[in-house]
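Input:
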Amino acid sequence: MKSDANTIEELFSRGVGEFIDPGGVFKEKLLKKSKGEYSNDIIIKFGIDPTQPDIHLGHAAVFRKLRQFQDLGCKVVFLVGDFTANIGDPTGKNKVRPSIEQKEIEANMATYLKQVGKILQTDEEVFSWIKNSDWFYSVSDLMVEEKSVRIQGKDEKGNDSSIQVSANSHIGKAALYSATRMQKTHLKKEEMHDITLRGLLWTLGHITHARLIERDMFQERIKKGEELYMHEMLYPILQGIDSLFIAKIYGSCDLEIGGTDQVFNMLMGRDVMKINKREQQSVLSIKLLEGTDGKEKMSKSLGNYIAITDEPNDMYGKVMSVPDASIMNYFELCTYTPRSEIEKMKNIIEKGGTNLRDKKMELARRIVALYHGEEQAQKAQKDFIAAFQKGGVPEEIEEVAAEKKEKLSDILLKNGFVRSKTEFRRLIKEGAIKFADGSKVEDEHYALEEDGVFKVGKKRFVRIVV
RNA sequence: GCGUCGGUGGCGGAGUGGUCAAUCGCAUCAGACUGUAAAUCUGACGGGCUUAGCCCUACGCAGGUUCAAAUCCUGCCCGGCGCACCA
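Output:
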């Protein structure tokens, strides 16, 4: 990627909610870096939740931004907020097994990074990740399985020596813990950084109540007379402490990126860093992508998302189902279409000069091409036209196996095309289940004699092979 | 701990002994119209069946009263609010 002024300009404005970079510190570093005049790593922090590994276009917008920074020589650090996620968790386990947790997180990260790898570079030079329990847990939080631990050291004469200690002792736990810590094992650090109550209070001693309750969300709840718990108040500060520790561990934390809903928390990081005499991070927030319903933000739990692992046809179709009003939001956040072109499009649309459907098809094609390649995108478009504009059946559809004479209702139920037999019967009554030629299946007991293609409603297609 | 109000389908929220698989709104699904958009209209929306009907399981959990309970009683669990205790 070229690092000309235009690229940089686009980087800080496209899809961006706010870019807070007092004194232009970050921008300057970036410029220097691109000219080879800045030798330190430029660290960009991004908080993730790997327990939800389905990455959708909303995340992708941020990842694509991160990728652009990587291309300019920055290093992206994913912060896994496992510790802070546990605080709000009511299951309330008060002891932890770090080695097991580490394994779980690593397994999650593996699937997560597999998807992220489609967008980001994940080699060590420009990428790293760390979990925040690495500095938030204290030795007393831990539970040990072992009975005893051997600790290596030197004797008075400087010869190698070791002693056996009880695993449940403070020193034993410390030894076991340090053997699982990412700072040591993944990042090969000698010195370990931890937050302590002393350090936390020091920081808290510089933050006022008024500063904290500024936050919109807190204000709203105060207005409604809802309770505000102390751990919730502390949350932004803990997130800030994460930035501080990334700076300690990686040498700096120059920029934090997140959704527009994270701006307050990210700015808290600046405060915490300043209090602790660290260079403050800059903050870049990315606009939220609307979901396929065009109302809420895209999220898995609302079911209005397009996953980057969605099949081409599916992805194309989902983009087409997005309301017209969201098209520009998608163009900005989900494609590389130059902004000048997007602006032109906006003008044309405002004048009502063009068929919006065609713009949306272009959008869908571009998005599919991004994740599946141009060829697949073309194919998805062709299939879409065949299936929906001409009322046929797409070429590539899900195929399921079935026994001869097996009832259609059972096959569809078994493969999740209908939720229950009752629903199947309803759909038959409504004339929603059709053969490939478009004629309706009238008999709810219809059984298969040979291979067949069926439509359930207008969006579900299946080829059944006997 | 005491008092009090509450826990109903994916969500919100009616119902306070039979006519309740449960009014209504949202969400969802299907049909019509379309551009698989929006808007609009129509219908469905616990599960199952040999389907003008029938059966099963459900209104926090467990018992009980009754011919009959989401609805009444008892115990338990969970949540909101008020008060007290502790500090």
